[in-house]
Design brief:
- This protein is an alpha/beta fold and 440 residues long.
- The protein has ten helices and 18 strands.
- Helix 5 links the parallel strand 13 and strand 14.
- The radius of gyration is 32 Å and the shape is elongated.
- The termini are far apart.
- The structure holds guanosine-5'-triphosphate and magnesium ion (MG).
- The site of magnesium ion has 4 residues, from helix 1.
Amino acid sequence: MKSSMFVDVAKVFVQAGKGGDGVVSFRHEIYIDKGGPDGGDGGKGGDVIFEATENLNTLADFRFKPEIKAENGQNGAKAKRRGKAGEDKIVKVPMGTLVKRDNKIIADLVKNGERAIIARGGDGGFGNAHFKSSVRQAPKIAELGELGEMFELELELKLIADVGLLGFPNAGKSTFLSVVTNARPEIANYEFTTLKPNLGVADFDNTSLLIADIPGLIEGASKGKGLGDTFLRHVERTAVLLHLIDVYSDDIAKSYTTIRNELKNYSHNLNSRPEVVVLTKTEGLDNDILNMQINELRKVVNPKTDIIPISSLAHHNLKETLRILKTKVDEVRSKDIEAYEEDLSVPVISLNEEQNSEIWDVYKTGCKTNESGEEVSVFTVRGEKIERFARRTNFDQFDAVNRLRYIMKRMGISHELVRQGALGDSIIRIGDSEFTFIEQ
Ligand SMILES: Nc1nc2c(ncn2[C@@H]2O[C@H](COP(=O)(O)OP(=O)(O)OP(=O)(O)O)[C@@H](O)[C@H]2O)c(=O)[nH]1
Ligand SMILES: [Mg+2]
């Protein structure tokens, strides 16, 4: 991966497949005068499904394909043949991708292989074979397929890297990144060389770590000094922190505690993140001085935290550091997954899908001049189930519209319309469709 910058949000437009239309058709048999209805149903439209994969680390790909579409279902055919269902569209996203619609999280893909249906394909419409009854031997109605869901999404990748590098300016963070990963950040012997975060992948022992290098932090960073808070945001969901301290620091304990304080002030989350401490630039340093520095540091560092002297220049202790980091990253990730599974077991009380979709609402929305030049009232009907029926109604077919009126009656909507003063020629509006309350 060649990456010099975080790509952690992307906007995409998803469109699930439309359901195929049902058809009107009658059997043709030589000895039967008028064959029965045999129009088949439309096939279901394909879903748009997201799948988390460990093979992606960024959302960069979505910049080049911001529109994602699943296949439409095919129309029904005679002899009750159902149209072929549209194929689902499976889209790979990095593990840790949050999927948001209108600022609401609709999916959080954590584990490798985990899937979520993001946009549902429309159902196929019924063919006329479904509408036969004792009083209606030759139904001339068939439903249209439903549209697939379509909307804009925002993807957010918070779990950006496995390891976040922290430390004062000039501590040697970018140098470390450039030696252990494929990244080529700018390096120089002055402070604030790095101005924006860098990412790199360290390959070793048949495994890898994604490492994020951020600009140096200073006292007050958590409050925004030197843009510190934006940089801290970048390491907020890294699994493990690698704290780099220049072994030549005058007050090595203070170098450490200053950065720790900024973490604490920034968020509890970041403060409790597992960490590894390395002393940088130690090649050629007298052992006594090195040990003295380590002892000073020990006074303020948690006894369980590793303190490792390294040299990026002399390639000293780099692999050892990566191995320790990897062990810690794996621990954190497996805990993340356990916590996530616990989350899922929390019971949620809500209306079931059936109850929810039955809810409807009627209100008078104004007046309008109809085709005969008369002033008539307009009523709007809203509700998931009735809107779904309306979308599936072919308004060119009298029988189909009458069926919709019948469904309104059964759901109690017609009664409410009369109560609110609807007359036979009142216009009823459901979704994008309009029709008269009673057939004119
Ligand atoms: N002798 C020696 N010098 C090093 C080592 N690692 C880094 N340096 C030097 O330290 C200086 C700063 O290195 P950088 O990697 O740019 O430091 P940084 O922490 O990224 O600095 P900012 O981006 O300003 O926060 C450079 O001159 C490096 O050559 C090392 O292992 N040994
Ligand atoms: Mg740097």
